[in-house]
Amino acid sequence: DQQVKQNSPSLSVQEGRISILNCDYTNSMFDYFLWYKKYPAEGPTFLISISSIKDKNEDGRFTVFLNKSAKHLSLHIVPSQPGDSAVYFCAASDLGSGTYKYIFGTGTRLKVLA
Amino acid sequence: GAVVSQHPSWVICKSGTSVKIECRSLDFQATTMFWYRQFPKQSLMLMATSNEGSKATYEQGVEKDKFLINHASLTLSTLTVTSAHPEDSSFYICSARDPRVATYEQYFGPGTRLTVT
User: Fold this and answer.
1) Is B113 close to A43, i.e. CB distance below 8 A?
2) A-B contacts at Cβ under 8 angstroms
């Protein structure tokens, strides 16, 4: 049972435009969400996170939106740059469990075209 | 952000042998580290939570006798793949949370590519 899903395996966006990556989850106990960027044969790099008490968090070109009722979050990158091309994973955690462990989504490969 | 290293970055071993992968937190002490594996073009699957000074907590379906985890110090966790088989070939990644940081992100190592022949 995939508790965290990213339904778009790939996305292509023109440089300078907005990239929107989506993520859905099923476990209502998740209360902390993160986005990571990953290049092949490397470990993921943290981008941005959001707590379930918020519906938006912004950091530079990256904004994460959380819709708890829909169990949906999205990552907006604007403007998109060629260096943003990578695989993006969303992750969810149930901090209330005290384990701090993540469940990762299936990933979306973003390609930003110059 | 905090730095996590892994060694080796890649390893090739013969079927039936064991291989050890090290995960170190370089600039912080981590009471908890996590081990993941990733198959090509798939998600990162959590294998186990490594707890300093106590037994690791394994996720459902992960064989604890095959994937031995030892977290002997606050900066080092090791994953030993015992009696490796070709199906154990994968990309293994560790992570750790920096307890000094108020937020909850984990910092990941660069990963270890294991190939079993």
Assistant:
1) no
2) 55
Nearest to B32, CA basis, from A84, A70, A40, A102 = A102
Contacts of A46 in chain B (CB under 8 A): 1, 105-107
- CA separation for the pair A25, A38 (Å, rounded): 20
Question: pLDDT-based confidence at B1, cuts 50/70/90?
Answer: low
Contacts of B73 (CB under 8 A, 6+ apart): B52
Cβ-defined contact of B4 to A95 (cutoff 8 Å): no
Chain A residues with CB under 8 Å of B49 CB are 99, 101
pLDDT digits (tens, 9 = 90+) for B55-107: 899 999 999 999 999 988 899 999 999 999 999 999 999 999 888 887 788 89
pLDDT by residue (tens digit) across A59-73?
Answer: 999 999 999 999 999
Q: What is the mean pLDDT of chain B?
A: 92
Task: Choose among B28, B1, B47: nearest CA to A47.
Answer: B1
